[in-house]
Design goal:
With 72 residues, the protein is mainly β. It is built from no helices and five strands. Strands 1-2-5 form a three-stranded antiparallel beta sheet, with no helix packed on it. A two-stranded antiparallel sheet has the order 3-4. The radius of gyration is 17 Å and the shape is elongated.
Length: 72
């Protein structure tokens, strides 16, 4: 299987959306009409960060594997 490797530049990140559960914790099935798009994701790749005017590198606050909330 072909796997694509992303290497974001600067302060960019690549996020994989985490799909919402089909059932609640109590086992109730959620119909498609009541589902919202998931607002959670996992960091797949992280850029090196941004440079300050002095040339110092400011690394990103997130790392690969972190779970994040996505804005709507």
């Amino acid at each position: 299987m072909l796997t694509t490797v992303f290497r974001p530049l600067h302060d960019r990140v690549v996020v994989r959306r985490i799909e919402a559960e089909e059932k609640t914790k109590d086992g109730i099935v959620i119909p498609d009409t009541a589902k919202e798009k998931p607002a959670e994701g996992e960091i797949v790749a992280v850029g090196s960060g941004t440079r300050h005017e002095g040339g110092n590198l400011n690394p990103p606050d997130v790392k690969v594997g972190d779970r994040i909330l996505l804005g709507k």
